[in-house]
Known about the structure:
Elements: E1 4-5, E2 16-21, E3 32-47, H1 55-63, E4 68-78, H2 84-102, E5 109-116, H3 123-134, H4 142-148, E6 157-165, E7 168-177, E8 190-195, H5 201-213, E9 230-235, H6 249-271, E10 279-287, H7 290-301, H8 304-311, H9 318-325, E11 337-340, E12 343-347, E13 350-351, H10 356-363, E14 367-373, E15 379-386, H11 390-397
Parallel strand pairs: 4-5, 8-9, 10-14
Antiparallel strand pairs: 1-6, 2-3, 3-4, 3-9, 6-7, 7-8, 10-15, 11-12, 11-14, 12-13
Helix pairs in contact: 1-2, 2-3, 5-6, 7-9
Amino acid sequence: MKFHKVEGGITAAQGFLAAGTHCGIKKNKRDLALVFSETPSAAAGVYTQNRVQAAPVIVSREHLVGGLARAILCNSGSANACTGEQGLHDARRMTELAAKALGIAAKEIVVASTGVIGEYLPMEVLEKGIPEIAGQLSRDGGREAAEAIMTTDLALKECAFRLVIGGQSVTVGGMAKGSGMIYPNMATMLAFITTDAAIAPELLAKALRYTVNRSYNLITVDGNTSTNDMAVALANGAAGNQTIITESEDYHRFLALLQRVNTELAQKIVRDGEGATKFIELTVKRAPSYAAGKVMAMGILNSTLVKTAFFGADANWGRILSAMGQTDIEFYPERVDVFLGELQVARAGQGLRFDEARAKEILKNKDIKLTVDLKMGGETVTAWGTDLSHDYVSINASYRS
């Protein structure tokens, strides 16, 4: 399939407007984002699996039960998590304020928050800021919206791709935030996706779940899952393709397009990982099942010893096998091969004599490819992670200060 990368991020698809502004939650950075579809949209969401769930996650789950929504409202600087009934009231009040300003129903609005846990939202600034941002919506507002959802992020995360589906040019665009507390399922991340494809809500939900499991749920920075995470997709049908109502060729083309966007956004999150100096792409080959390969991949990438070895450019491949052995996946250590880039460092579970200088050279790169061959089945799983540096500790030791 020939994907065309396009500009515009969350507003690249036809019929979507966005804005990002500073309303006063943060001292001087954008802290409120709004995305709006000019026409009714199918909608779907995937949420954190943390047992502690923030008020906006609870409210958005309720609103998306019917598979329809027209707007996404997100604040940064305060998570509105662990805030009890007051937090739920405030999350619902945010949707009411946006609904009045946009002329739609409150249940048509997805609400999200990100920031410090345990603090109440400063509703006095949101009462003023939400009506104001509704008047700032534009086709060019995607970048400002992407900036407004950032917390410890150092890099803005947006992308959009286009593909012909059903004879029409269909666009999927999105924006995301995330830098720390990154680990399935999902992570301290938000991802908002828009598309002008015409697709039934139930198939949009299925496609979103599938692609999330193969993108955001295959990344890790520090092995921590947060309370506020969600990925939400809106599809307004403005592209004019025949509505996708079955798992046809058009559905699979849409699925591939959505996967392309979510994979790129997921990788951007990892590349911006707190304190990260390395971007690690791990491929687990010949796994007995996709689920087993995923568990194995995350077991390796979440190992503190593996992560610190990559930080120090130390080809300590034994830590990789040890991390594999700590998972609950049955495998044959005596079959496992390990490669750093193209350099094989272990064969059949035993070390090889390899060029240490060459290994160190590979591990000093910003981007590192690691391959583990289980020799057990036909599944291949690719996941992405980071090293663990001194800076990660420094950032998270003073997150609130």
